[in-house]
Write a structure and sequence with these properties.
Aconitase, domain 3, alpha/beta, 3 domains, four-stranded parallel beta sheet, about 400 residues
Length: about 400
């Protein structure tokens, strides 16, 4: 790789062992993927935050980096933690788990990372501009930034995203390069998509069919950002899709050449099949909405649907701390709590110790959650639309 003079000094150890270690990791990554240079990044987003995910080895590594003086050079945000950082006791989180989780957060804070603890940084003041280079790690955030915002990032690991944040650069390969952002398959959408769960099912199907492709969607109409968020998260969960285009919806769709590409269709039959595939035969004892984290509009919808009703079973609405505060200001959190639900910040069911809290069957409206909860949290899953979840929990 072609390095500038400062990068050569870093590799020579002249700027200390931490910078040398981080840059050497990025150089190796660039060599593996054939990059010949670095590009400066506007921001980074780091995964591997939950103690459940990284355990003691990850905790020790982060504390070691912080102690050695690692500091980020660009705005850097964090993925969800394993607990609500303010209300973990109320949720019954084991104290030892919470204590180690707080040490992880503190290590990141020492490195200058903003403890946002959310998978939707673009909804809490960290919205990249078109064409900006990033080093983001959360799969659903990566696909949203690339596709909906037109920014440029590969699907980083937590460590490579942190290394890029410390060094301020990332190797120039993959989706940083224009030639790799072209559509590779056309998806014609024939099924009526009613809400985020349907868009998630579409994404899940496409991720299975072309796990490493760049889909171009026809027939999405005026899909909202929340629906596109669910679509991308589904594709990233069932495959490794990090970029898609949607006709007359996403910013790079107009320059895509689709003639001669493979074409697949998604109709009512495919929608029904995916919903059945993601559903177990069990009675939910918990419902979780907000994977990726719920937007203010989604919280408002839940509050509206719960008006005058009472929940018979627990409902968690997971979101970012900043979004929860605004929802509180508008009275939405209070409305959900009056019905018996909870709005939980900083975490989500996928990275929380859900199985330790006694839950075994969880209703979700998220294809990503449906994909990961069985393996990571020993949950059986029922896949439902938001309105169906509310009706189930309120006995309608």
């Amino acid at each position: 790789m072609e390095l500038d003079r400062e990068q050569e000094r870093i590799l020579a150890g002249e700027r200390g062992p931490v910078l040398e270690r981080m840059l050497r990791l990025l150089v190796r990554l660039g060599e593996i993927y054939g990059a010949d240079r670095f590009v400066p990044i506007a921001s980074a987003q780091v995964s591997g935050v939950s103690y459940k995910s990284i355990g003691d080895p990850g905790l020790e590594l982060l504390e070691d980096l912080a102690a050695q003086g690692a500091r980020v050079r660009v705005p850097t945000t964090l993925n969800p933690a394993g607990i609500d950082l303010e209300a973990w006791r109320e949720l019954g989180i084991p104290e030892e788990f919470a204590r180690k989780q707080m040490r992880i957060i503190e290590a990141f804070k020492q490195m200058g990372v903003q403890p946002t603890a959310t998978c939707v940084p673009y909804l809490v003041g960290h919205r990249p501009g078109f064409g900006e280079h990033l080093a983001w790690a959360e799969s659903s955030a990566v696909v949203f930034a690339n596709s909906v915002l037109g920014a440029r990032t590969n699907r980083e690991s937590g460590l490579s995203a942190l290394a890029a944040a410390v060094c301020g650069v990332t190797p120039d390969y993959g989706y940083h390069r224009e030639e790799n952002r072209k559509a590779t398959v056309v998806v014609r959408v024939e099924a009526p998509l009613r809400d985020a769960a349907d868009f998630g099912a579409l994404g899940y199907y496409v991720g299975q069919r072309c796990p490493n492709g760049v889909p171009y969607f026809e027939g999405l109409g005026g899909a909202s950002e929340d629906q596109l968020k669910a679509l991308g998260a589904g594709m990233a969960a069932s495959g490794a899709v990090a970029l898609f285009h949607a006709e007359r919806v996403t910013p790079e769709s107009g320059k895509q050449e689709t003639a001669g590409l493979e074409r697949i269709e998604f109709g009512a039959g495919e929608l029904k099949k995916i919903r059945e595939e993601l559903t177990s035969d069990c009675e939910p004892d918990l419902a979780v909405i907000g994977c990726p984290h719920a937007s203010l509009a989604e919280i408002e919808e839940i509050a509206r649907r719960l008006e005058g009703k009472r929940l018979r079973k627990p409902l968690w609405v997971c979101t970012a701390r900043a979004i929860k505060r605004e929802a509180e200001r508008r009275g939405l959190v209070q409305a959900i709590e009056r019905a018996g639900g909870r709005v939980i910040a900083d975490t989500c069911a996928v990275v929380a110790p859900l199985e330790a809290l006694g839950f075994g069957c969880t209703a979700v409206n998220s294809a990503k959650a449906a994909r990961y909860l069985p393996g990571l949290c020993k949950q059986r899953v029922v896949y439902m639309r938001t309105e169906e979840i509310i009706d189930l929990l309120t006995g309608v």
